[in-house]
Amino acid sequence: MRTDTAQIVRLEDYQPSDFLIDRVELDVRLHPTETRVTATLVMRPNPEGRSDAPLVLDGEEMNLKAVSLNGRTLTAEEFEASPQSLTIAQAPRQPFTLTVETELNPTANTKLMGLYRSSGNYCTQCEAEGFRRITYFLDRPDVLSVYNTRIEADRDDVPVLLGNGNRIESGSIDGSDRHYAVWHDPHPKPSYLFALVGGRLGRVSKTFTTMSGREVELAIYVEPGKEDRADYALDALERSMRWDEKIFGREYDLDVFNIVAVSDFNMGAMENKGLNIFNDKYVLASPETATDTDYAHIEAIIAHEYFHNWTGNRVTCRDWFQLCLKEGLTVFRDQEFSSDERSRPVHRIAEVKTLRARQFLEDSSPLAHPVRPTQYREINNFYTATVYEKGAEIVRMLKTIIGDDDFRRGMDLYFERCDGTAAAVEDFLRAFADVTGRDLSHFARWYEQSGTPRVKVKGHYDPDARTYRLDLAQSTPPTPGQAKKEAMAIPVALGLVAHDGSAMSASCDRVDQRGVFLFDKPEDSITFTGVASLPVPSLFRGFSAPVKLSLDLPNEELLVLLRHDTDSFNRWQAAQSVAMRLLVYLSTGVEVADEDIDAFSAALCSFTDRNAQDDPAFAALVVTLPSEADVAQEIGQDVDPDAIHRARSEMRRRIGQGCAKHLQRFYETLTVSGPYSPDAASAGRRALRNASLDLLAAADPDTGEALAVRQLESASNMTDRLASLSVLTTLPGAVREEAIARFGDRYRNEPLVLDKWFTLQAAIPEDGTLERVKALMQHPAFSIANPNRVRSLIGSFAMLNQVQFNRADGAGYRFLASIVLRADELNPQLAARLLTAFSTWRMMESTRRSHAEQVLRSIAQKPNLSRDVGDIVSRSLE
Ligand code: PHE
Ligand code: ZN
């Protein structure tokens, strides 16, 4: 077991910086292996810092060439330098200028942090602590500086030079084949928002006029030849800018907004000031290469990064413990944007599906942590579903509790007070407390306490008194470092539904005008009066809080909600709850009467039938069963993935047979005519049609195969083509293999499409899949150094293929471990992320559990693990 206690950073130890950097002049001379960086830092002691402290600048793998103070070169005795830090013990007590020259090798940078090369182009990634890989610096988010960046490079190899802010100068260097550009960003920013790009890039652009009438040039840079694939992203950017003006009153604040797409990127995208850098999969789209889901993701991520301009950049974070301050809030904002641009109920269901699949899973795993963590060993490991998605749910709950108008007033106050500062979660909450006069200290517990609260509810109807009482109890399970839990402030949006579907005129004085009851004690009861008949309670409407509800409604009552609830989310939830109950029974050997499955299937048919034309996207969600991973999470212990797989296959078959007539009709009638458009309405028709195909194939493989083959050949867009290939992957045989091979050949020069092809194959729930995945690692397009390739092949195998990753012989675990160790030598962030697939190991049955434990222990014993992997493996074993 690893005994190394790499340094732990604690929230309670926060101290303001002893020095400040007001201005940064960077001179970067790009070269493939010997890039020279000269950083001139205009500094002064921080009045809020210690007055006797040495100056200690952060570095990582730095190669120092020269250092001078106020223009005088320092002698070896006057400073101490290592690759990790630069210390000047006797730093001046008045303002001073420090000049540091370093040399970097961007070609050798495989961590994709700091300055690196992707497809030959130069780019940077500085969040969270990558700037220290470019120069020595006070690399912490509460040190804000105004940057001037001069970039110089070979004119032919690197024609495009981009930096933060506005370009103020450019030209050629006489007598050489080099040119330069100077960029100035007037907005003080922390180093993590710094970026530069140099390369050979194609460009699309348009002009945007802001609400106050200023003109902004919007541009997206992509691999030359792929310009037309950036049009959708550019349009999404314009819509995001308009939306933020309208909904939050936020205007853009520079003359240009640039986005660059790169092929090698650890995350989705990065909000560098005025120069967002994107994983190209979240920019590039064409009907031939991108699915409806890809388009929706592009729209959401373009919006997310743009919205950071105010929530993250203008108001930034005091320290990395406050990460949710920008991420949770910005996810909330991008979710609201997508809801406004598309269908709100459909989007809400999609949000909750990911929240449950990723965040609830994390919250019940050894990696559980609060939305605002209190300590970390490696901050890169805290860009999690908890910080992002649960962080967004907290903002949404706040809005639910205080109402739309006060929410907007609170946001305005937050921006007004905190603009230009590095803020903390407390500053955010204080704005809302001040505009509403409410005490939000109890609510703040959502940031501190980890684990998913469970809310148990029982209903009691008294026909004589015509009252209906709900008894509620809440508890939160223990999580690492938090054995005992306090009650949370949980907003419960609720209503009552009569069995015949009619509206009930019941009332309850504990429920506010918005239909919300704030449940903030361990136990509570609320009583409705004037309840004319036995109601069905509809709780957590719109998923008003990120909790697990235990309420044992019989299937018939859930089906009443599916039919009649006015809340769409709960209509969907009702169907899911019935499906989940049946799946859990079937998976764990509890007997299920045929009639129960038939009744459910009949309810699905008639529900889908009624909604297929008006809201096919919603109907598609309703007919989609919980995933195998969802069922495993629900069972929670001694999980047998094979049994779950058999149960789910059986249910799909039964529903497919039971609803065959309807499904065939949807398949025939929900075609979309005309050229492909990614709009939500057309996407919804494709979604239901393809969900129907999937169920038809489950019911009758021969028919399914014939339909899928025909669709694969005739499809005019990637959504339909991929959906049919996906159906074929569930049907073993020569037809499938032939289809897979042809698809791979057709798209051999399209890496982003091959990623989908890798993913489909890695997810095949059959014994040969591990060998298939190993063989695909030899495919010319695969590279262990490219995060998208690794995630789509290896990540999908580990995260999507429940039966094969969790093979009873442990081979899936051993395979993942070997890849994690290989990847760790190149890219620790990528390796650590893959390793989180083990976070479910404790819920497996004992054979699998002991294989997983053995594998984790063997990883932990390896020498020279990165801090990223060391942190995940040790927490996974705790
Ligand atoms: N801040 C990025 C976002 O918008 C995520 C990110 C984190 C990207 C770290 C790169 C590195 O969510
Ligand atoms: Zn973000």
UniProtKB/TrEMBL annotation:
Residue stretches making up the Peptidase M1 alanyl aminopeptidase Ig-like fold domain: 451-550
Residue span, Peptidase M1 alanyl aminopeptidase C-terminal domain: 556-878
Record-level Gene Ontology MF annotations: alanyl aminopeptidase activity; metallopeptidase activity; zinc ion binding
EC number: 3.4.11.2
Pfam family, one: DUF3458_C
Sorted UniProt keywords: Aminopeptidase, Hydrolase, Metal-binding, Metalloprotease, Protease, Zinc
Segments forming domain Peptidase M1 membrane alanine aminopeptidase: 232-445
CDD domains, sorted: M1_APN (cd09600)
Entries under InterPro entries matching the protein: Aminopeptidase_N-like_N, Aminopeptidase_N-like_N_sf, PepN_Ig-like_sf, Peptidase_M1, Peptidase_M1_dom, Peptidase_M1_pepN, Peptidase_M1_pepN_C, Peptidase_M1_pepN_C_sf
Catalytic reaction equation(s): Release of an N-terminal amino acid, Xaa-|-Yaa- from a peptide, amide or arylamide. Xaa is preferably Ala, but may be most amino acids including Pro (slow action). When a terminal hydrophobic residue is followed by a prolyl residue, the two may be released as an intact Xaa-Pro dipeptide
Domain Aminopeptidase N-like N-terminal positions: 25-193
Stated name of the protein: Aminopeptidase N
Organism the protein comes from: Microvirga tunisiensis
